[in-house]
Design goal:
Blueprint (H helix, E strand, L loop, with lengths): L1 H8 L14 H12 L5 E6 L4 E9 L5 E11 L8 E11 L4 E6 L3 H8 L4
Antiparallel strand pairs: 1-2, 1-5, 2-3, 3-4
Amino acid sequence: MEGSLEATLAHPTDSSGMPSGSSDNDSRPLVTRLQKLLFRPMLIGVTDGRFFLGGFHCIDKQGNIILQDAVEYRSTRRSSPSPMEQRSLGLILIPSSARSSCHVDCAIDEQLSLLTLNE
């Protein structure tokens, strides 16, 4: 699911939530697909090795993601396999520059529909 979500997030939007430089007819399916991801559980990996799990709340045109009711998971040791430590964070913003992966919990038909965003 990572690649398909990245394809969705790669299209910048203007202040109305529409992709910049495109007409309403071009962008409406992209906005609709992104709206279907709202409030779904999302697992985001960041470059320092931590993971955040929370409900997808919103994304801005730069690709920064806000998760609600987020939980942070991090390794307590450098050796493998290491136990994971967790802590509740609440509402958090994850900058696009720190994001290394995104996974969304959704049905297989929705995953397939998101894959068509690359076309």
